[in-house]
Specification:
This protein is 25% helix and 20% strand. By secondary structure, it is an alpha+beta fold. The strands form five sheets. Strands 5, 6, 7, 10, 13 and 14 form a six-stranded antiparallel sheet that branches. Strands 4-11-12 form a three-stranded antiparallel sheet. Strands 1-15 form a two-stranded parallel ribbon. Helix 4 crosses helix 5.
Length: 303
């Protein structure tokens, strides 16, 4: 059944489902569309391509219970946590335990922090399918601007079928090398004098994992995600770009895509705020509102 819209349509289904909707509508790479039996509506070969994310791993270190939040999470502590959150909206239940973070460079030949670190004052392990907190602390760190690119493609013309999502993590050798350097940098941080008396030993990957090859194997086996998919309906001024600077589809009139899929490159940091700002800017364009004046507010930099 064909539905026709009398006004502009805005697609905001995310970096996986926005390209999926376009592809199911026949907007994409004609060769791929014909392979799965979707009639071609308009050619836009980059739809679904340029998929990016922030892949990362955990490094875990042991600590004494009194030096970890685990000391607060016994049966009594859990009851207190629940009561404080339910009654006062504060306490340990009011946060996510990511107590500190930093954007750091693992090498000198980049002009941006290529790694994001987040610190948790406890660690955990899987026991019988459940996450159990154990005394310690850990770093989660991920690549700020990975070079690897993946794709979202259709498995069939049936809209009930999930798309194929392939990130191709570490297909770029530089990404894996940066993660190995990230492990070494985290270890260097934890072995500073300030940690003396707190660190009680490395849990993962373990002190025996020292060579580049061994660290790379650990990274490959333990890589997770910060859940920051983006880039699959890339914005740009070139002929292959999916949308223009106002998120209007280049191949079809009366259609915009407004979500993280339009990012040409994943941001150096979490995606929530940048995605909200994309939506605010496009909303102003649609409504004809003048943009706010540039801010002259200062900002702090490390010496």
């Amino acid at each position: 059944r064909t539905l026709r819209a009398s006004r502009e349509v805005i697609v905001s289904a995310g970096a996986m489902n926005s390209p999926r909707l376009l592809l199911l509508s026949g907007i994409g790479d004609p060769d791929q569309l014909r392979e799965v039996g979707v009639p071609v509506t308009a050619e836009s070969r980059e739809v679904g391509r340029n998929l990016q994310n922030h892949p990362g791993v955990d490094l875990q270190f042991a600590a004494r219970p009194e030096d970890s939040l685990v000391s607060e999470l016994g049966l009594l502590g859990q009851a207190r946590l629940a009561a404080e959150w339910a009654l006062l909206r504060r306490g340990l239940g009011a946060g996510n335990y990511f107590e500190a973070g930093a954007f750091l460079r693992t090498r000198d030949d980049v002009d941006y922090p290529n790694m994001q670190y987040e610190f948790l004052p406890l660690t955990r392990k899987l026991v019988d399918g459940k996450l159990v907190p154990i005394p310690g602390f850990q770093f989660w760190f991920d690549l700020s601007r990975p070079e690897s690119r993946g794709a979202v493609t259709l498995r069939s013309a049936d809209p009930r079928d999930h798309p194929s999502v392939v990130f191709n993590t570490y297909s770029a050798e530089r990404d894996l090398a940066d993660m190995v350097d990230g492990v070494r940098l985290a270890r260097e941080l934890v072995h500073q004098q300030a940690w003396d008396g707190i660190r009680q030993g490395e849990i993962t990957p373990g002190v025996d994992v020292t060579s580049d090859a061994d660290i790379a194997a650990f990274v490959r086996s333990r890589t997770g995600t910060s859940y920051h998919p983006s880039g699959t309906c890339r914005m740009g001024t070139d002929a292959d770009a999916v949308v223009d600077s106002e998120c209007r589809l280049n191949a079809v009139d009366g259609l915009r895509v407004v979500d993280a899929s339009v990012m040409p490159r994943v941001t150096t940091g979490n995606l929530y705020a940048p995605t909200v700002m994309i939506a605010e800017k496009v909303a102003d364009r649609i409504r004809g509102r003048a943009p706010l004046a540039p801010s002259s507010a200062g900002y702090a930099t490390a010496p």
